[in-house]
Specification:
The complex is a heterodimer of chains A (about 60) and B (about 290).
Chain A (H helix, E strand, L loop, with lengths): L8 H10 L5 H10 L5 H24 L1
Chain B lengths: L16 H23 L5 H25 L15 E2 L6 E5 L5 E2 L5 E6 L10 E5 L3 E4 L4 E4 L6 E4 L5 E3 L28 E4 L12 E4 L4 E2 L4 E3 L2 E3 L11 E2 L50
Parallel strand pairs in B: 3-9, 6-8, 10-13, 12-15
Antiparallel strand pairs in B: 1-5, 2-4, 2-7, 3-4, 4-5, 6-11, 7-8, 9-10, 11-14
Helix pairs in contact in B: 1-2
Classes of the chains: A mainly alpha (about 60), B alpha+beta (about 290).
Chain lengths: ~60, ~290
């Protein structure tokens, strides 16, 4: 089965901006390096953001 | 394209948002380190600079998250379930209290060292724990044990009560019945100074029950004055504590420890009851609830 294609930079950048995990400074630096990241690191970054966002949503729902 | 790492699996830490956030920030930090490894060789100076800044910001974010995870808010301290009175004199009277020996833990249990009258320097001070203790301003640190009612601790304006975390002092051996035990001064890494009767304040001359004016204090903070009441507050309302922001070890060699959320595994209860045999035998016992 073919792996799902990684999201494009625009999608990852949107996830960074919307992330509740990072403060403004950290977001700014990730956005700055994003175009220069290796492909597998883009995938890793996307996975971390998605998981963290999911945990935040679950935490909200449990309250 | 490779799938996300197995390390990115949904985490059981989602039950603890603080721990989950810390774990996610650690993953970001690790990714930042990995990316900085090749970005620092970029031909573009701006990219090299961004990589360095990214790494620094990632480390700082992890540090801040760790500090939050290790705080001990007083709300998480378990209040007393019964009164504590151990090591107090067994006869009514006035007893000198050793200067700078007075502590109060987050649950509202006082501990201090007192001296037998006439002992001078020849006898070791004796340690006591009491949750129902009235305070009053006096000329010197002194304990009054009345015929009836709760004991009174007199404190001059210069004498602080050290607010500490845990309720167990330095270990001392269980004494044989009728014998005395040398008081072992408690050792706490963090405390705040509470002056119930500061200079220039309106210290009550009549003994009353006192609590710190704020529920949370920072290590090293000075707290002046207090909230007086004619009757002891309910156990839950006596919780007023020191918040530490470093990895939690309780003061003292007892079994109390600071609650941490770092691993999401809930940590031990923040305080434990003092051992009743820890000091010289005297009046009182754990669990007594004398009325005033």
């Amino acid at each position: 089965m073919a792996a799902a294609p990684p999201p494009d930079d625009r999608t990852i950048a949107r996830a960074i901006r919307k992330s509740r995990l990072m403060d403004a400074a950290l977001k700014k630096h990730w956005l700055a390096v994003l175009p220069h990241l290796a492909a597998e690191d883009r995938v890793r970054l996307w996975a971390i953001l998605v998981e963290a966002n999911g945990q935040i949503q679950r935490g909200k729902a449990e309250r | 394209m490779s799938a996300p790492d197995q390390a990115d699996r949904p985490s059981e830490l989602s039950q603890d948002p603080i721990a989950a956030r810390l774990a996610a920030l650690e993953k970001l930090r690790a990714l930042a380190e990995r990316a900085a490894g090749y970005l620092r060789r970029s031909a573009l100076p701006a990219v090299r600079l961004s990589a360095a800044l990214l790494l620094a910001a990632s480390l700082a974010a992890c540090d801040r998250a760790e500090d939050v995870a290790e705080e001990v808010p007083p709300a998480q301290v378990q209040p007393l379930t019964q009164e504590v009175a151990t090591g107090l004199p067994d006869r009514p009277g006035r007893y000198a209290v050793q200067a700078d020996s007075v502590f109060r833990d987050q649950r509202g249990v006082y501990q201090f060292a007192w001296l037998e009258p006439g002992a001078g320097g020849s006898q070791a001070p004796r340690g006591a724990y009491a949750s129902r203790l009235r305070l009053a301003q006096g000329d010197r640190p002194e304990l009054e044990v009345p015929d009836q009612g709760d004991p009174v601790l007199y404190l001059p304006p210069s004498q602080p009560v050290r607010l500490v975390e845990a309720g167990v002092a330095g270990a001392s051996p269980t004494p044989a019945p009728g014998s005395s035990t040398t008081y072992v001064a408690p050792h706490y890494p963090y405390w705040a100074m509470w002056y119930p009767f500061p200079v220039g304040g309106t210290g009550y001359s009549r003994p009353t029950y006192y609590d710190p004016p704020s529920r949370t204090v920072e290590p090293g903070q000075r707290v002046d004055g207090g909230v007086a009441s004619t009757t002891p507050k309910p156990f839950g309302d006596r919780v007023a504590g020191i918040r530490t922001a470093v990895s939690g070890q309780a003061g003292g060699t007892g079994s109390g420890s600071a609650v941490t959320n770092k691993s999401g595994a809930g940590g031990k209860s923040g305080v434990t009851a003092p051992k009743s045999g820890g000091f010289s035998s005297g009046r009182g016992s754990v669990g007594s609830s004398s009325s005033s």
